[in-house]
Amino acid sequence: MVSVKAQMRKGILEMCILSIIERGEIYTSDILIKLKAAELIVVEGTLYPLLTRLKNGGMLDYTWKESTSGPPRKYFIITEEGSAFLKELKTSWKQLNKSVNKSMK
Amino acid sequence: MNDIKNINLGGHPFAIDMNAYFALEDYLIAIEKHFAHSSGNKEIVEDIESRIAEIFRERQKPLEVVVLTDVQEAIAVMGTPEEFGGETEHDEFYDDIPKTEWVFGKKMMRDEEDSIIGGVCSGLSAYLGVEDPIWVRLGMAFLILGMGVGFGLYIILWIVMPAAESPSDRLAMRGDEINVENISKEMERGMETFTDSMNKFGEKVTEFGEKFSKKG
C-alpha cells in the first residue's frame, strides 16, 4: 500500500504543479513557495524530480531569464500538451472527489 | 581554525569551510546516487544545486563564509533523498518485490484468490496445468469422501504449500516467466480484482441497507 499512497500523492502533486504553472510563467522557487503555503510538500527536494519529469514528458517547458542578483533563472511555462493533460486530470479529480464524498456520507 | 575552499555552486561563488564542504559534497553525492536511474538526473542535481546556492544567498549575511550549520539548514529545507517521496523515475512498484524471489520455473503454491478452503486445489491445478480447478477439486473430494486419506493429504498440502502472495509468486505458481511486463500485467489484474470486490462490497451494503429499511 505504501507505493499506492506514493503514486496517489505524486499524481495529485503533479496536478497542482501544472495548475500553478498554468496561471503564467513562474520561477521555480516561487512554485516552491506556493506548494509550501498550501502544505502540499514538506521538503523542497520533492519538486525537482517532478518538474524534470513533467518537462521530459512534454507537459512543461522552461526559459532562462536574466536575474538582477546572480546567474540566470529557470522560468517554467505550460505547453499545449500540458494544458490538455491538466484538463483531463482536473476532470477525473472532480469525478473522484464526487464519488469519494458520496461514499463517505 | 579551519581551511576554506572556494566553490562554484549553481553559478554562484562561495567560500566554504572544509567541514561544511564535505557535508555538502556527501549530500550532493547521495542525491546523485538516488537519481542515478532517472532520466534527466543531471538536471535534477543541477536544479537542487542552484536552489541550495539560493538558500545560501538568502542567509542574513550572504557574503560570509558558508559554515556547517548553513549546510545543515539547507539540507533540512531540501530534505534527504529518502524524504523526497520516492519520486525516482524507475517505478517504485517493482522495489516492493524482493529480488531474491525472482526465481524461474514453476512452484507449487496455494492460490488464495481462487479458493474454496485454502486454495490448495486451485494452486495444484495451476501447477499441473489443469485449466479449470474444478477437476482437481473433484479428485480431492473423491479422496476425502471415498478413501479417507484425502483429508490428511489436504491438510499436509495446505501446510507445505506457501500462499502465492505477491505478483511474482503468482507468476511462479503458473510457471509464467517472471519479467517486468508480466508482473505489471499481474498487478493490473490484481487491481481489477480489488475493484471488483469493492463493487461487490458496495452492492452488499446497498442490499443490506434496503433490507434494513424495509424491516424498519
Number of strands of chain A: 3
Radius of gyration of chain B: 29 Å
Distinct helical segment count of chain A? 4
Rg of chain A to the nearest angstrom? Answer: 15 Å
Please give the count of helices of chain B: 8
Total strands of chain B: the figure is 2
N/C terminus separation of chain B: 84 Å
CATH architecture of the domain at 22-80 in chain A: Orthogonal Bundle
Share of helix of chain A, binned: 55-70%
CATH superfamily label of the domain at 22-80 in chain A: Winged helix-like DNA-binding domain superfamily/Winged helix DNA-binding domain
The low-confidence parts of chain A are none
Structural class of chain B: mainly alpha
**Biggest sheet, spatial arrangement of strands of chain A:** 1-3-2
The biggest sheet of chain A, with number of strands, parallel, antiparallel or mixed sense and barrel status, is:
3 strands, antiparallel
Query: Which H/E pattern describes the elements of chain A?
Result: HEHHEEH
Mean pLDDT of chain B, rounded to whole units?
Answer: 79
Q: Order of strands across the widest beta sheet of chain B?
A: 1-2
Order of helices and strands of chain B: EEHHHHHHHH
The count of domains of chain B is 2
Walk me through the structure:
The complex is a heterodimer of chains A (105) and B (216). With 105 residues, chain A is an alpha+beta fold. Chain A has a domain at 22-80: Arc Repressor Mutant, subunit A (Orthogonal Bundle), CATH 1.10.10.10. Helices cover 63% and strands 13% of the residues of chain A. Chain A has helices at 2-22, 28-37, 47-56, 80-104, and strands at 26-27, 60-65, 73-78. In chain A, β2 and β3 form a beta hairpin. Chain B folds into 2 domains: 4-90, no CATH class; 99-215, no CATH class. Chain B is 57% helix and 6% strand. Chain B has 8 helices and 2 strands. Chain B has helices spanning 18-34, 41-57, 68-78, 120-128, 134-147, 150-160, 167-174, 180-215, and strands at residues 4-9, 12-17. Chain B is elongated, with a radius of gyration of 29 Å. Chain B starts with a strand and ends with a helix. At the A-B interface, α1, α2 and α3 of A face α2 of B.
